[in-house]
Amino acid sequence: MVARADKVTDPGIVAGLLLARRGQAYFSRKVTELRDDQLAEPSLLPGWTRAHVVAHVGLNARALTRLTQWAATGVETPMYASAEERDREIELAATLPVRAIRTLSDHAAVHLTVEWRDLKAEAWRHEVRTAQGRLVPVSETVWMRTREVWLHAVDLDNGGRLDDFPPELVDALLLDLVTVWRRRGAGLDLALTPTDRDWTIAVSDDARTVATGTAVQLVAWGAGRVRAGSSGGVRVGHRPAPPAPPWL
Question: What is the edge-to-edge ordering of all strands in the sheet holding 201-202?
Fold first, then answer.
């Protein structure tokens, strides 16, 4: 039998799919390393157990599959009926038997990658609507999934580290932080200067507040993955940085 391959040929999307699938493999490995009883233990996300994280990542794959099917068929299929329904679905899924939670996560991930694989090259430009109401090309779902699987692998709190992330992912996350902050139009006076890169990225053109740290430290700080009350090594001038602006 001949293996079926992705129909997309755009090199940027092809590279993005590879990074998303690497992230899925990383997340799945961290889940597999957990004993069943450990899923009931707290994750790094306030109020969520590890079961919540695994269930959420599985349900996120289902939601992105709906957007991919929308692009393929032209039939509008929203990610979620509502934000409240999304939250209820996660809470319910987190109470399922552990075997069912693991199955949800695995099967939903496979379904999403199959839908991506079979999406025609021209359909990747079709617009869909995110849960926040933004109209984006369906190719955006690849990055949306990439963020989910890599960061939530760390949130499981069983050895996943941002230091494990590929450099191109770290750079993309820094760009995403600034892009989201800009989109909110708050005129945020902030620039990020990673000390292990040779560039600076600013939220506003006249930003005077410069946060410095390694690229990984800046991502952890900006994404809210630092210990409460800590800047994670990020500094503004000679002082530890204050809490980062909200991101997602």
Answer: 201-202, 191-194, 210-213, 235-236, 239-240
